[in-house]
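From the pipeline queue, job 12 of 40. The input is one protein chain; the requested action is below.

Action: predict structure.
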Amino acid sequence: MAEPYDVIIVGGGPAGLTAALYCGRARMKTLVLEKATTGGQAATTDVIENYPGFPDGIGGYELTERIKQQALEFGAEIQEIKEVISLEADGKLKLLKLADSTLSARSVIIATGSEPRKLEIPGVEEFHGKGVSYCATCDGAFYRDRVVAVIGGGNSAVEEAIFLTRFASKVYIVHRRDELRADKILRERALENPKIEFIWDAHLKKILGNGKVEEMVVENKNTHERTSYQIDGVFFYIGAVPNTEFCEGLVELDGREYIITDEALRTNVPGVFACGDCRANLLKQVAVAAGEGALAAVEAEKYVEEEDW
């Protein structure tokens, strides 16, 4: 096996890239493993308005690409992989098993983020990629002058619904409550947008179509009345599931599969840290992820320096 890295960072979103930037500046031998688009979900966000230093907002791809370039300039390596199969401890070293190799490191920072939660109803899997989507920035342009629905009522759902009005002739927001959970400024924008129509107190029950999405059926949770709507696409924003399967059995997880850490972002395994959306924290935001990435990197540096290798 090759000489171990000082730190391997699993995940190349804002948390992982910020950690790589800090580890690189500390002159640690640093590797970032990423199986999807570098930048994570943030890279697919059209505009990020609440990241400090950008009063006019900044595109998610541009922001994460800037962090990536900083990390590379300070010597971090970034490797695209299919997946991390498992994380194991071998004495003080940590082993990351990939599909075709095993990597070793003195410390590991888990920054794998999360992926969109999928609703288990008829039509979701059948029409995935044929009208069912989880990324408005990726697919919104396909729905020019079409009718689409957004499922959810939080910040992500409302932000992406507003974005979709650039293309779609109408955007339904289907929400299980009678008011949005999104930040007040987003609620105001959505309520004032003439292209957005709200379907309150409703659950999506099924998606229908012939080879592509053509119809959705929603049920009012109070009256149980079902109504059919003719649509061309459905975008889901109903929460997220952490990407932590590979470390189950070694790293302690909470009841929702998020990684448990202390205030220094240390897990129950010495030398293994976690940051960002895969961690059991209170706020899933890019600013929080970046801050946690910095702290995890500093703690990993301390660990590597203080251990007797």
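Job complete. The mean pLDDT is 96.
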